[in-house]
Amino acid sequence: MLFIFFFAILGGKFSYTEAWGAVGHSIIVRLAQDQLTNATADWLQSLVPWHFRGNLSAMASWADSIIHENSNPTGFINWEWSKKLHYINVPDGSCIYQVDRDCENNTCIDGAIRNYTERLEKNLDLAQQQEALYFLVHFVGDIHQPFHTALKSDYGGNTIKVRFMNGRVTSLHSLWDSGIIQYRIQTDFQSNVNKYYEYIHQLMLREPILNSDDDIQEWIRENLKLVCNQLYFDGNNQTMDVTKTHNLNETYYMRSRPIIEKHLALAGRRLGTILNRIAQARARQFLLSTSLSPVVYILIAVGSVIIMLIVTLVVFLCIRNRKKR
Ligand SMILES: *[C@@H]1O[C@H](CO)[C@@H](O)[C@H](O)[C@H]1NC(C)=O
Ligand SMILES: *[C@@H]1O[C@H](CO)[C@@H](O)[C@H](O)[C@H]1NC(C)=O
Ligand SMILES: *[C@@H]1O[C@H](CO)[C@@H](O)[C@H](O)[C@H]1NC(C)=O
Ligand SMILES: *[C@@H]1O[C@H](CO)[C@@H](O)[C@H](O)[C@H]1NC(C)=O
Ligand SMILES: *[C@@H]1O[C@H](CO)[C@@H](O)[C@H](O)[C@H]1NC(C)=O
Ligand SMILES: *[C@@H]1O[C@H](CO)[C@@H](O)[C@H](O)[C@H]1NC(C)=O
């Protein structure tokens, strides 16, 4: 209920800066939507607030909007528990994700993706399916931003200060969420997000299909490899740390941009695959309950009654026979 109420006041307007910015998340969900089968699209349509007319990407940043006071002033405390679901932090120097150590009680982005995938395959009530769907589309996006599975000491790059292209000071994490994407759209796509979407869409179609497309743990390993071997090096290959503000320019940009764009494309394709698979699992599971006509139910009921009568008769005859002897 709380949920429905929340949509009413929010009306789909979000403002926040964390986690692939709104643009990145929206692009990822649009890419996924482009791959949906009609059956999947029909099912999802029923889970998107009606005023968005089945446009799931409008909900792509819901998971961020609920935890921030400016976008959810009356309810953000209620969603505090979900903050930990947006990331994984591994101990510095480890560069390896260990589920039991880094995702206690499944309270991390890996556990959340598994949890909400499973929940969507069940027949939960509408509000719970909506919650699961909006969380899922967001977290599959987030997990493709390498700084969402990164190092503990600097909170996934959040405490590393950088100045990009002589702009204002921001965090390394935020530069990866949105700074680089924004710069790219401004300089190469006339600030037109739709043109940029088309470009990433083409990238997605060209990305080879991999075995790892299914493997969340492999996605995390790929991220950590990037984090530990590349993303902390500035234009002079000096390791960035929290002690000062690092100036980043074209050198860092040209090195990072291809990774970001590839990850947007991969996230979109993988999310589309996941959603289609969930819809198929639901169809298989609920086939019985939805495809039987009333006539079949009546036949089953009549059949059961007849079987019960026969069993009763047999038991009755047995007892009578025994008494005779
Ligand atoms: C899917 O839906 C679209 C538009 O509603 C329709 O044109 C298309 O034929 C459908 N595809 C299948 C396989 O049913
Ligand atoms: C869906 O919403 C997104 C914004 O989240 C917008 O960019 C996109 O154009 C919309 N798509 C359609 C088909 O309306
Ligand atoms: C994990 O669950 C146990 C038992 O419910 C609890 O004591 C512990 O605090 C939880 N840990 C985290 C990190 O939530
Ligand atoms: C799965 O999601 C539900 C609903 O949000 C939540 O209550 C539950 O704690 C989650 N379970 C795990 C293991 O994350
Ligand atoms: C970018 O920064 C690097 C390293 O600080 C420097 O060597 C290079 O000259 C700078 N490039 C531009 C175009 O400012
Ligand atoms: C930084 O490292 C990369 C890859 O190892 C190398 O291509 C580049 O020349 C190095 N840049 C500087 C300024 O040392």
From TrEMBL:
Leader peptide range in chain numbering: 1-19
Pfam families the record matches: S1-P1_nuclease
GO molecular function per UniProt: endonuclease activity; hydrolase activity, acting on ester bonds; metal ion binding; nucleic acid binding
BP-aspect Gene Ontology terms: DNA catabolic process
CDD domains linked to this entry: S1-P1_nuclease (cd11010), TM_EGFR-like (cd12087)
Ranges that cross the membrane: 295-319
Coiled coil: none
Domain of life from the UniProt record: Eukaryota
Stored SUPFAM superfamilies: Phospholipase C/P1 nuclease (SSF48537)
Keywords: Disulfide bond, Endonuclease, Glycoprotein, Hydrolase, Membrane, Metal-binding, Nuclease, Signal, Transmembrane, Transmembrane helix
Family affiliation: Belongs to the nuclease type I family.
Record protein name field: Aspergillus nuclease S(1)
Species of the source: Adineta ricciae (Rotifer)
